[in-house]
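seq:
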Amino acid sequence: MTYCVGMVLDRGLVLMSDTRTNSGVDNISVFRKMFSWQVPGERIITIMTAGNLATTQAVVSQLEERAKTPEERSNSLLDAPTMFQVATEVGRLLKDTILASREANGQEGSGQFAASMIVAGQIKGMEPRLFMIYPEGNFIEASYDTPFFQIGETKYGRPILIRGYDRSMSFEDAVKLLMVSFDSTLKANLSVGLPLDLMVIERDQYEPLQQRRINADDPYYQSISASWSDALRSAFNALPDYSFDSK
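struct:
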């Protein structure tokens, strides 16, 4: 399983993904799920992936090849005029890859090869944009009503984001909020695991303000995990006591 979050702020975009892939309790691996392409001063595009690993790797590999091969640049993320067209092309590739895998394996109606993606970025002269792409190739865009997207194992970390998110919050607070969301998910589901990949994209900069990997021994992550557990216990103990005699 996977957990990835993309978040839109007034200042830009904040993205985080885990790296665990497992096919059973005895087959656990670390795979990167965050991929980025940049043209300095002109654009930055980042994709996060969830679902069938072969499917997502095939899509990312095709995008990588197009970025490196001049004759394929007409279909490259580096030449698309808008982020909407970037999302359209990624959705088309995802849909075609899933269909090809199903046909090759005789599983036309199976969801075995399904995957989803988050596409984020900014092209010069336009707003930062965030999209969630479904296995069918269609997608939705983040808005003021839906300012963040999750893919993968979403249910454990979502309440944290809903209660804590503020579009005007600082990048630092957004990273802290994501740390709590991921820590809650890691505690509840063993199929999501460290290390975590983080990318912060500031508006109109077209390169990461910060890009790093957060390992299990990261002091800040350890502090957040321990402090959040203590804060939950304190909040619980501060709630009014229930009485069997109350009416």
